[in-house]
Specification:
847 residues; alpha+beta; nine-stranded mixed beta sheet; 23 helices
Length: 847
């Protein structure tokens, strides 16, 4: 032992754990041996078992799997414990000893087998040595089992005789479990709980004189008789000896009428059964025939007697066979006659039925011809009447349609006049502000000019002339517009926020769905509205795709109005920007700084003014910007300043304007700002770049299900703050559930598999995976995880499809097998892509 390590001299019950190498291994402590008995081991005290430093193979050879033995002492290893950060121990082989006999005796939790056989249930292997059986109520034993199974494959149990238990031969103790709990030790071997008797000596203290039962098997009764020399020293009991034994039993009962012996009753039953068997001499004959003399006798007997023995049986068999053959032939002939009669009957009935069917068909044909002849003229007359009636209705409807068109034209003119009036009112307010500004500015300029003129006329001393000329130059620059001038900001009407804050995302969706149903536009069901609102709130840019007339522009304007953000006329928090053909840079969208004139020349879109207007209460709500017909020019070019803002980590990146004044040099995009772009897919528009597709969901409005949703009549009476919307429609650290994660990985692996037989791969970025997880986390709670994943695949994954050739088509067909199972929207979108490729050039594209 190492003197630097503290020695633990308390003995432990242990088992083998595992080998470390050829010389070393580990022991697992099970119990502490104390003066009062045993204590369980706390796992935290021995997290790494106990290392045997040398000669471990001798332990491995001496003790079996899970066999208990004693470790007298071991040491705590301070250095190893400090190095590994957990308690470590080691021991030497010389401190190992065998378990004390008749201690920690195993207990089997089974029903006690019947004593007549003593057979344990099949599959139950008894412990080596002494053990007990426990059926929850009583404990039986001690017991022992021979090491091998009997002829029937069972292990058997026998009473075990021990000095501490003088129950008598063939008897076993029966202990009430509730009375011997102090004798039962609970231990854990390889994480499995076991119950054991602490010792036979301890259990004997609870022994009672009547606490035992007879457990002598039938086989033991016969063995006792053989030991008493019944049957003339034979290993088997002869018939005469058995009869004499039966008489002895009867005489014993007469002499001891007051005695009731259970074993004697069982013995009477066994002897009676033995005498009633018909093959009592079978064992004797079998023993003789197995001997050399018996086999020789049997051979000679068969050789001599075989002809006479066999002839008798052969003749008898032949006679019986002939009789059976005649009987069978007669039966066959009878069946043939019956079969012939049945066939003749069937043939006659078939002929008769065929004649009846032909007659019926002819009669029906005549009837049909007659009916047709009678109704043909009536049908013509009815058709003529219907045609006349329909013509009259069409004429009436055409007149009604013409009247409606005229009324619509009148209403349209009236609306346009009112809109003009309304716009003029708004313009008046704006012009008043500009007029006030210019009047003040002109007064200042006039005062400066008058002062300059007075100086030139009244002062003969021209010492101030240079100063005055400088002031005049400044005035000239102002008049020519070559210095920066302040353009007055429009007065923006403040938003009205809703009085009741929504408690759930579902409430917001229901409110918007109800408002969409009331404005006589295209109806969005709950799933479509959820998809639209979640996408717009989670994405800096959302793209609405589809052919003309599907309601892309009106969807964006209706959404802004339903969110109470304003409309295209007042531009409160909604800005409608029609994209022009030929836009090539941000100057077409925002404007640019003209260094020659030292002014920032805004674009006609009004976006610069929209983003840089003074802070107000309106900043608490979403700012929604519509890029209408966005792909008339390349979005990636004119929208390049905003493209980087699509990533969450780059959202606060400012936009440079080029203005030299520090306070106006940059525009900071409010985190509440969102863009919606509408695109058409035809030859007159620009293709979307993969870089842009990777940063925006593309909602195809042509795949529309026009159905009403079950919702309440609740409509919010004002705008909802962007902070509340973010709390409802965005989850930090969102993750897919296991099923959706497996599906998404499967789809991504199919698209990116580098296999020439599948054409060029389609790569999906980690950015898209995160966007899908965030979308499904929120939308899945409202419309179900499968529907949410269907939308996500349709608008986040499928727009990336771009390829050509038969091999690429095989990749798409492989993807279709996955989508067709659970995702109908995505499957329909993919079918469109595949069909479009087949129909035209063999190139396959979402757009």
């Amino acid at each position: 032992m190492d003197s630097n390590n503290p020695e633990i001299q308390q003995p432990y019950i242990v088992i083998k754990a595992s080998k470390l190498n050829e010389r070393q291994g580990f022991l697992t402590p099970i119990l502490k041996i104390t003066e009062d008995g045993y204590e369980p081991i706390i796992h935290d005290e021995y997290p790494s078992d106990i290392l045997v430093s040398k000669d471990y193979p001798s332990i491995d050879e001496a003790y079996g799997y899970n066999e208990l033995f004693i470790l007298e002492s071991h040491e705590f290893d301070i250095e190893k414990s400090h190095e590994k950060g957990k308690k470590c121990y080691w021991a030497e082989t010389k401190n190992i000893s065998h378990q004390i006999p008749n201690t920690l005796i195993p207990i089997l939790d089974i029903e006690l087998p019947p004593k007549e056989t003593g057979n344990l249930p099949l599959g139950v292997i008894p412990p080596k040595g002494v053990y007990f059986i426990n059926n929850d109520t009583f404990l039986y034993g001690p017991l022992i089992s021979p090491p091998n199974q009997n002829e029937d494959g069972f292990y058997i149990i026998e009473p075990y005789t021990h000095p501490n238990f003088s129950f008598g031969r063939g008897n076993i103790g029966k202990f009430k479990v509730s009375e011997i709990l102090n004798c039962i030790v609970t231990l854990y071997i390889n994480y499995k709980e076991e119950k054991r008797i602490s010792s036979l000596k301890h259990l004997s203290y609870f022994k009672k004189n009547d606490s035992f039962i007879d457990y002598l098997p039938d086989e033991q009764l016969v063995k006792v008789l053989n030991q008493q020399n019944f049957g003339k020293q034979s290993t088997k009991l002869g018939k005469k000896e058995a009869e004499r034994l039966q008489q002895a039993i009867i005489q014993f009962e007469k002499n001891n009428r007051s005695t009731k012996d259970d074993r004697l009753e069982r013995l009477k039953t066994i002897i009676g059964r033995y005498l009633s068997e018909s093959d009592i001499g079978y064992e004797l004959i079998k023993e003789y025939l197995n001997s050399n003399t018996g086999q020789k006798f049997l051979g000679n007997y068969i050789e001599v007697k075989m002809p006479s023995l066999l002839n008798k049986y052969i003749d008898q068999i032949k006679t019986e066979a002939n009789l059976e053959e005649n009987k069978i032939n007669a039966e066959i002939e009878k069946k043939n006659r019956e079969l012939t009669a049945i066939k003749e009957k069937i043939d006659l009935e078939a002929i008769k039925a065929a004649e009846e069917i032909n007659n019926t068909i002819q009669n029906k044909e005549k009837t049909i011809e007659k009916i047709l002849a009678e109704t043909e003229e009536e049908t013509r007359q009815l058709l003529a009447e219907k045609e006349k009636e329909l013509s009259e209705k069409i004429s009436l409807k055409e007149n009604e349609l013409e009247n409606l068109k005229q009324n619509f034209i009148n209403i349209d003119l009236d609306i346009k006049n009112k809109l003009k009036t309304l716009n003029l009112t708004n313009k008046i307010e704006e012009l008043k502000g500009q007029c006030d500004y210019y009047e003040i500015h002109n007064k200042k300029l006039a005062a400066v000019a008058d002062g300059y003129k007075a100086t030139l006329k009244g002062d003969d001393d021209n010492t101030d002339l240079q100063k005055k000329i400088g002031e005049m130059q400044a005035i000239t620059k102002v008049l020519s517009g070559s210095i920066t001038t302040e353009i007055p900001q429009r007065t923006i009407k403040p938003l009205i926020f809703c009085k009741v804050i929504p408690e759930s995302a579902q409430e917001v969706v229901e409110s918007l769905s109800n408002q969409f149903m009331q404005d006589n536009g295209r109806i969005f069901n709950t799933e479509e509205m959820t998809n639209l609102v979640v996408s717009v709130n989670q994405s800096f840019l959302t793209i609405l795709s589809g052919p003309p007339g599907t309601g892309k522009t009106t969807t964006a304007t209706r959404l802004a109005k339903a969110l109470h953000l304003g409309d295209s006329s007042d531009e409160q928090n909604f800005l409608h920007i029609p994209v022009g053909r030929g836009w090539v840079s941000s100057r077409d969208l925002l404007g640019f700084y003209n260094s020659l004139k030292n002014v920032y020349q805004e674009s006609r879109t009004g976006l610069y003014n929209f983003l840089s207007r003074p802070t107000s209460i309106n900043d608490e709500a979403l700012k929604l910007i519509l890029l209408d017909e966005a792909n008339l020019s390349s979005i990636e070019h004119y929208w390049s300043d905003f493209l980087g803002l699509c990533d969450v980590e780059h959202f606060n990146r400012p936009i440079e304007t080029g203005i030299p004044h520090p306070e106006k040099r940059i525009i900071t995009v409010n985190e509440n700002t969102r863009f919606i772009a509408t695109i058409n897919n035809d030859a007159t528009t620009e293709r979307l770049s993969p870089r842009l597709i990777d940063r925006a969901p593309i909602i195809n409005l042509s795949n529309h299900i026009n159905s009403f949703s079950d919702s309440t009549d609740k409509i919010f009476d004002g705008a909802i703050t962007a902070k509340n919307l973010r709390a409802l429609f965005y989850k930090e650290g969102a993750q897919l559930n296991k099923s959706d994660e497996i599906t998404l990985n499967n789809i991504i692996n199919i698209l990116r598999e580098n296999n020439s037989a599948l054409g060029q791969p389609v790569l999906i970025s980690r950015r898209k995976e995160n966007a899908i997880a965030n979308y499904c986390e929120v939308a899945g709670e409202m419309i179900g995880s499968d529907v949410a994943m269907d939308f996500a695949i349709q608008q986040q994954i499928l727009p990336h499809i771009e390829g050509y050739g038969t091999n690429f088509r095989n990749r798409l067909l492989k993807l279709a097998e996955v989508l067709n199972k659970s995702y109908p929207r995505s499957a329909a979108e993919l079918d469109r892509i595949i069909a479009s490729g087949n129909e035209f050039t063999g190139s396959y594209s979402y757009f």
